[in-house]
Amino acid sequence: MARRGFRYAVLQVSKRNEAARRLYHREGYLVIDEDPGQWSFVDHNGMERHVDDPTFVMEKRLAPSL
Description:
Elements: E1 8-14, H1 18-26, E2 30-35, E3 38-42, E4 48-52, E5 55-61
Antiparallel strand pairs: 1-5, 2-5, 3-4
């Protein structure tokens, strides 16, 4: 990603997934924000589903490419 000119990588991880948050933290990601994690979609049966999964927004500065 750095070779393509990106300076940061940003991801979201569920607040319920502590193991994933720790993994990304070990890889250099820091929590920079929170997201309420609420959205809706229509499933394969045509039913509208609502999701409530709050997340941490995590960011990592990428090393400049050579």
